[in-house]
Design a protein that fits this description.
By secondary structure, the chain is α+β, with helices and mostly antiparallel strands. It contains 7 helices and 7 strands; from the N terminus they run H-H-H-H-E-E-E-E-H-E-E-H-E-H. It has helices spanning 4-8, 11-20, 23-32, 41-47, 96-103, 133-139, 173-208; strands at 52-58, 64-70, 77-80, 83-89, 106-113, 118-129, 148-162. It has a 7-stranded antiparallel β-sheet with strand order 2-1-5-6-7-4-3. Strand 1 and strand 2 (64-70) form a beta hairpin. The protein is extended, with a radius of gyration of 25 Å.
């Protein structure tokens, strides 16, 4: 069985690493902390913060395609220790991802959380599930304004955490609104404290007059 690190680092990749002087670095990393192939509590927690990710597929003739997938926070879920899945919502009806998976199950997920500058990359295979209403109901959020049509399930072969270098923090409107509420609350507290101190000072001046 292929080791998780070997899923990402093919012979050609290892040759490039050796030629450019980084092969030993990644050999040591694999020995100290090999890539994982099962879901961990940390990964589940990370998924719970995501409202989007990128899904890569390729056709049988190896034409690649990257698709942005969005939904309510936490819509990408772990269904067991080797699988992630999400409800596929009605979209522009191009069906490029579905066509690619019909002839080539190889897939890749790139998960990015901009506020904390964290990213996770996953290699594996994916399948389209059209006839499992129970699973679709488990994954879909009834409050989200989109029609769930099917499930796409991803089987993990390897996953790893990428470094934070060059990731510019970005924030959703929800994040900004929450920060604005906290700031408004703090301003109100400070204004109340200033008013209290002014009143206290005015009282002291009257007593000393």
């Amino acid at each position: 069985m292929t080791a998780p690190n070997d899923v990402a680092f093919s012979a050609a990749v290892k040759a490039e690493q050796a030629k450019r002087g980084s092969r030993r670095q990644f050999e040591r990393a694999a020995e100290a902390r090999p890539m994982r192939s099962t879901v961990t509590p940390d990964l589940v927690a990370f998924l719970g913060e995501l409202d989007h990710f990128y899904l890569g597929t390729a056709s049988a003739d190896r034409q690649p395609y990257i698709q942005h997938r969005g939904g309510p926070k936490g819509f990408l879920k772990a269904t067991d220790e080797r699988h992630l899945a999400f409800a596929d919502f009605a979209g522009n009806r191009q069906y490029i991802t579905l066509g690619n998976l019909a002839e080539n199950p190889r897939a890749y997920m790139f998960l990015m959380h901009y506020p904390t500058q964290q990213r996770v990359k996953l290699w594996g295979t994916a399948e389209v599930i059209e006839d499992d209403p129970a699973l679709l109901a488990r994954l879909a959020d009834a409050s989200y304004r989109a029609k769930p049509e099917r499930v796409i399930r991803f089987r993990i072969e390897a996953w790893d955490i990428n470094c934070r270098q060059h990731i510019t923090p970005r924030y959703t409107q929800e994040d900004i609104n929450a920060a604005a509420v906290k700031m408004a609350q703090r301003i109100a507290e400070l204004e109340a404290e200033v008013a209290r101190l002014r009143a206290q000072n005015s009282g002291a001046m009257v007593e000393n007059a």
